[in-house]
């Protein structure tokens, strides 16, 4: 058996050799590496920590180990030559010293030739040298597109991609810094409503030319310096950084006084929880992560806070960043930043997205955290707490939904069948908290890179909710202040195509000398409002205690296996699921759902050619413009009428296209043919249930056992099923029998209320059901005539 290339676990691989070479972009590079004596490593790191009180730069430190997931390492620098800053669709690439002036020339040609950059101006200093490149990212194209291509739309990360393209795997290590929550609005069409501080930035990424690396696992350290040379297009002179000073401007830390101690009054978070429950009950949301913020005056410098956090809260994503804005008076407010500077100090427990090349393929991984309980007083109490956490059905539902959405994010751009849950409800222990964590991996399809993977996960369901877009809209209209960096990411975008980022959680954000801490809780219909408020306070306590101790003052298990490619199910009836869709085309209509790409992944495993199109104009144009063997109606929040689902069904009937509906899809089919929906007294989101087939040889249940477990995510249900629809499966939930599947008596139309793609549904059963639809659903001439007649009846009912 061929041995797989060893994973880095985010740690640096080795000290690179000295050398001089030219990159594909025409940049001359001289790299000089220096191995540091072990006895001076710690003092070198601490000197850098002190420097970051006054100098721009970044320190990333992993002080937490977990087999197969995290290793211990440190990477950092101060006085970088170039910084990329951005807000909304505006960006600036600024030289921070004389070396940065040369490096700006390296990037200018690439930015001017990029289709994602709508405008670019060169700003020169008083000496006539290039000081800053100021630009604007192009607006979204507005073109009808497949959902899989959404990450290719212009965004601030398009600028990051341009910069990376100039470099090479052996050039300076990449970009380091922070990416803010508002980047999500460049991926999903969500309108910001909360007031933003004029100094807020969405991206601050430094390009260093000198970097300190410590591999704690190997007990080795080194420093790498880079010099560059560059010939400007159309010129004969060579620009080079050799012999130019590496320094930068120092600005001491200063404290400030907050306007208020917190943005949500005591008891207010519990009220927000009750408000969220109204959305769960009507099916608009399955879960949502709301947060609140505390603020204090912090006389202690950031370096002191970082050292205290590092000692008290070892974590895989510790960080200290000096993100000071520009001092130029002609710069816009967002670029100037905060007058007294800006810092991020954190100890995040959660990976956001990590990408590295393994055996020639790009592997993407994430570790969703959901399920939290306080540490015990000793190991015995810890064991009792772990047992309670693992026994909590509410916490299991939370993590189930998070992982289902995360798998969906990956399925958008990963190879079919490659998205796997390789760790399920595993325990991670931190200083005050115990978490349950899943570990998910996938391999990117050709044509997608680490930045696509990053965008497709913005932002993690563990800081937003599900369905993600609807949860983000709820957050924007119900939280009391803008999140800024919270819920975003910190880390490293490397020029070799890899990426390592952690979620910006357990973080102290210092702006104008005021330190703020934000913490959230995952809310479900089962949530106890007071307990959720207490959970946010518990999560914030580690940061707040660090600040208080520094003198701050206020304003007054075992791996879960993924679905196999071959399903052998039922009473000995086995077939190869990878052949059922061979040569067939499937259109998956997206109703703003957070599981649609996982569904697409399953469909692709049958061998089908699958396209995802969002409901409305894009889906209708796709149905009318091409021949499809199957249209799949995705789940979604709200009601079928929110998506004019009946119009989609009319289009399928007009083109004689078979239909399979999931969850909302079933509800839309019931209403389309004259049935009615009801609302369950208690919604079931992320909950298991056993379905019972009603007998007969139903198309979608062919070869499946008469009973099996599935995942339910719904509050609406089919209350009155019209006579032309046959009920093919139900579940008994105690107070009533609920319809779980239907099939049209004459037409190739079938649907299920449950989620065949969820990890709570046996993956073999879910894959078999989709393969059945592709194998059995098809129109004949008589069906086409009946479809036209049914369309007339449906229009009359409307």
Automatic annotation (TrEMBL):
The keyword Isomerase does not apply. CDD domains: GATase1_Anthranilate_Synthase. It holds the Pfam family Anth_synt_I_N. It comes from the Eukaryota. Residues 159-220 form the Anthranilate synthase component I N-terminal domain. Transmembrane segments: none annotated. Residues 269-539 form the Chorismate-utilising enzyme C-terminal domain. One of its GO terms (molecular function) is 4-amino-4-deoxychorismate synthase activity. This is p-aminobenzoic acid synthase. It comes from Aureococcus anophagefferens (Harmful bloom alga).
């Amino acid at each position: 058996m061929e041995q797989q290339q060893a994973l880095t676990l985010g740690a640096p691989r080795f000290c690179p050799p000295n050398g001089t070479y030219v990159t594909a972009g025409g940049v001359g590079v001289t790299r000089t590496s220096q191995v540091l004596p072990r006895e001076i490593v710690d003092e070198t790191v601490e000197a850098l920590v002190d420097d970051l009180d006054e100098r721009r730069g970044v320190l990333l430190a992993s002080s937490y180990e977990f087999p197969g997931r995290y290793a211990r390492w440190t990477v950092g620098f101060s006085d970088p030559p170039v910084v990329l800053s951005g807000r909304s669709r505006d960006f600036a690439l600024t030289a921070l010293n004389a070396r940065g002036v040369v490096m700006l020339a390296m990037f200018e040609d690439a930015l001017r030739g990029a289709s994602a950059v709508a405008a670019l101006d060169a700003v020169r200093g008083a000496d006539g040298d290039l000081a800053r490149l100021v630009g604007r990212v192009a607006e979204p194209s507005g073109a009808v597109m497949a959902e899989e291509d959404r990450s290719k739309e212009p965004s601030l990360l398009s600028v990051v991609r341009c910069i990376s393209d100039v470099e090479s795997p052996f050039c300076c290590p990449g970009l380091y810094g922070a990416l803010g929550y508002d980047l999500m609005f460049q991926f999903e069409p969500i309108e910001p409503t909360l007031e933003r501080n004029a100094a807020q930035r969405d991206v601050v990424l430094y390009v260093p030319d000198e970097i300190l690396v410590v591999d704690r696992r190997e007990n080795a350290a080194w420093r790498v310096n880079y010099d560059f040379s560059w010939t400007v297009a159309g010129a004969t002179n060579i620009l080079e950084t050799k012999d130019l000073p590496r320094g930068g401007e120092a600005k001491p830390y200063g404290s400030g006084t907050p306007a208020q101690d917190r943005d949500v009054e005591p008891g207010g978070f519990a009220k927000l929880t009750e408000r969220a429950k109204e959305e769960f009950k009507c099916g608009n949301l399955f879960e949502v992560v709301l947060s609140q913020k505390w603020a204090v005056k912090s006389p202690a410098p950031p370096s002191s806070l970082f050292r205290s956090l590092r000692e008290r809260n070892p974590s895989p994503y510790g960080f200290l960043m000096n993100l000071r804005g520009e001092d130029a008076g002609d710069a816009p407010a967002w670029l100037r930043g905060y007058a007294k500077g800006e810092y991020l100090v954190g100890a995040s427990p959660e990976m956001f997205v990590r990408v590295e090349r393994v055996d020639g393929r790009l592997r993407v991984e994430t570790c969703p955290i959901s399920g939290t309980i306080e540490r015990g007083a000793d190991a015995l109490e810890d064991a009792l707490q772990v047992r309670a956490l693992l026994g909590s059905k509410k916490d299991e539902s939370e993590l189930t939904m998070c992982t289902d959405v995360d798998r969906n994010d990956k399925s958008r751009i990963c190879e079919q069948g490659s998205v796997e849950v390789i760790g399920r409800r595993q325990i991670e222990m931190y200083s005050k908290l115990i978490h349950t964590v899943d570990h998910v991996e996938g391999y990117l399809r050709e044509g997608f890179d680490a930045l696509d993977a990053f965008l497709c996960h913005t932002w993690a369901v563990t800081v937003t909710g599900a369905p993600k877009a609807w949860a983000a809209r709820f957050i924007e209209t119900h939280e009391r202040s803008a999140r800024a960096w919270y819920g975003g990411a910190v880390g490293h975008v490397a020029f070799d195509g890899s990426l390592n980022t952690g979620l910006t959680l357990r973080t102290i954000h210092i702006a104008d000398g005021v330190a703020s801490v934000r913490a959230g809780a995952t809310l479900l219909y089962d949530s106890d409002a007071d307990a959720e408020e207490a959970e946010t306070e518990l999560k914030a306590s580690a940061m707040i205690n660090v600040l208080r101790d520094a003198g701050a003052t206020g304003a007054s298990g075992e791996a879960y296996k993924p679905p196999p490619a071959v399903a052998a199910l039922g009473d000995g009836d086995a077939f190869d699921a990878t052949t059922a869709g061979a040569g067939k085309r499937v259109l998956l209509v997206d109703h703003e759902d957070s599981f649609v790409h996982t569904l697409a992944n399953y469909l692709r495993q049958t061998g089908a050619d699958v396209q995802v199109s969002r409901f409305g104009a894009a889906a209708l144009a796709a149905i009318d413009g091409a021949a499809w063997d199957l249209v799949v109606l995705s789940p979604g929040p709200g009601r079928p009428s929110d998506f004019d689902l009946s119009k989609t069904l009319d289009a399928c009937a007009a083109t004689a296209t078979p239909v399979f509906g999931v969850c909302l899809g079933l509800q839309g089919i019931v209403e389309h043919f004259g049935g009615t929906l009801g609302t369950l007294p208690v919604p079931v989101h992320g909950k298991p249930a056993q379905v019972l087939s009603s007998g007969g040889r139903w198309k979608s249940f062919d070869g499946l056992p008469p009973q099996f477990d599935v995942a339910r995510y719904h509050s609406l249900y089919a209350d009155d099923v019209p006579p032309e629809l046959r009920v093919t499966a139900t579940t008994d939930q105690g107070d009533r029998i609920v319809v779980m599947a239907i099939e049209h008596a004459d037409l190739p139309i079938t649907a299920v209320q449950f989620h065949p793609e969820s990890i709570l549904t046996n993956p073999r059963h879910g894959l078999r059901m989709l393969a059945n639809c592709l194998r059995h659903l098809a129109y004949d001439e008589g069906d086409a005539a009946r479809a036209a007649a049914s369309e007339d009846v449906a229009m009359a009912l409307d």
